[in-house]
Write a structure and sequence with these properties.
Blueprint: H1 2-10, H2 25-53, H3 72-76, H4 82-113, H5 119-129, H6 138-148, H7 153-179, H8 182-190, H9 195-206, H10 208-224, H11 227-232, H12 241-246, H13 256-276, H14 278-286
Length: 291
Amino acid sequence: MASITASAAQHPAARPAPARKLPSLKSACIAAAAYLVGVIFLLPYLEMVITALRPQSEINDRDYFPHHVSWASFTNIWSTGLGTNLTISLEVGVGTTVLVLLVAIPAAYYTARRRFRGRAAFLILVLITQMFQPTSLIVGIYQEFTNTVHVPSTVALILVNSGFNLAFAVWILNAYFGAIPKELEEAAMVDGASRTGAMFRIIIPLALPGIVTALIFTFIAAWNELIVALVLTNADSSQPLTAKLDTYLGQYSIDWQHLFAGSVIATIPVIILFALIERKVVSGLTAGSVK
């Protein structure tokens, strides 16, 4: 009897699960507004997919959904050389991102850790460079890369995009490095690590959300750039994907199926990249909001 009582004490009767409460009116309204905003942002992409799947005979129909689905736009578009343009865009995006991070990380680390004369002026100068748009400097950029510096168009695009995205990366990384306590580096150097070793082993891992944030914004900016790509590239085989999509816009007609099919394909690499590092980006954007 005692063993039965002890067993009953160890395994009490399962209590019924509490009834699930309905969300409050405020929570329901916030959720509904969030879903509405999400649908509004997804509608343009849905329109691109529907138009790309619409046959040419139904391009002018008023029905929102096509009566027949045609995948010809997604299969035939590769014969126009889109694969080469996609490769060039990847090269420009990856090359720009790597170059920006290689320059921005040591620059931001030094400005965050050293109080040298002219530091504030340097940071302000970096911020001023962010105010210039490629359109206002496009004539000088064209003259520089056609008359002075003779490099392949892909290298030219990497250099120009790096120059226009470097300021943002330096500023955001400077804020992250400055928020990390110096005592962590000093403790590592007391244990025998050099300043460079402390930076790579202590500071960079702690600032990884900021580095990932700078990475994704730099890649997207280089991936979506159009004006410089149109000016510095002439042949279709040397154009990135954004400039290639512009060729589907004719003077008297527009190839809507291939234009939207290419636009859908152009969004896939960015979606994949963002899905892989989404958690780091969110933590990087919200870091420092709670102290």
